[in-house]
Design a protein that fits this description.
This protein is about 0% helix and about 45% strand. The chain is mainly beta. Strands 2, 4, 5, 6, 9, 10 and 11 form a seven-stranded mixed beta sheet that branches. Strands 1-3-8-7 form a four-stranded antiparallel beta sheet, with no helix packed on it. A hairpin with a 4-residue loop joins strand 7 and strand 8. It is globular, with a radius of gyration of 14 Å. It starts with a strand and ends with a strand.
C-alpha cells in the first residue's frame, strides 16, 4: 500500500537545483509531521529534513543545512524539498515519510518512528 507519492527526481549537474514533491495517495491521509529521508547504495536510510504540517518548525541534518529547504502547501496538501547547490554526494533515492507527533517532541530522525512512506524518487548529481 503506497500511502505517499514522491515526484521530481532526476539527473542534475553539480551546483544545480531540484525540487521534490510529496503528496498523500488518498484523500483521508493525515499526519502532523512530514520528513525526507535518503538512501544511497551501500548506506542506511539517512534523515534529511522534517517539518510540521500545520505549525512552524523545521529540522535539517548538518550536511544539507543552507542548501535544502523543506516546505509545505496546505491548500494543495503537498510537501516539498527544494535542493540547491547539489553535490555528487547528494545522489540517493529520496523518500517522503509521515508520522503523528505534537508539541516539543515532534522532531525525530529515526526512520522507525515514521508510519507512512512513499516508494522513493531517484536523485542523481553528476560531477
Amino acid at each position: 500500500q503506497v500511502q505517499l507519492v514522491e515526484s521530481g527526481g532526476g539527473l542534475v549537474q553539480a551546483g544545480g537545483s531540484l525540487t521534490l514533491s510529496c503528496a498523500p495517495s488518498g484523500r483521508s491521509f493525515r499526519s502532523s509531521v512530514m520528513a525526507w529521508f535518503r538512501q544511497a547504495p551501500g548506506n542506511g536510510r539517512e534523515f534529511v529534513a522534517a517539518t510540521m504540517w500545520t505549525a512552524d518548525g523545521t529540522d535539517y541534518t548538518d550536511s544539507v543545512k543552507g542548501r535544502f529547504t523543506i516546505s509545505r502547501d496546505n491548500a494543495k496538501n503537498t510537501m516539498y524539498l527544494q535542493m540547491n547547490s547539489l553535490k555528487p554526494e547528494d545522489t540517493a533515492v529520496y523518500y517522503c515519510a509521515g508520522r503523528s507527533a505534537y508539541g516539543r517532541t515532534w522532531k525525530s530522525r529515526d526512520s522507525k518512528e515514521y508510519n507512512y512512506w512513499g516508494q522513493g524518487t531517484q536523485v542523481t548529481v553528476s560531477s
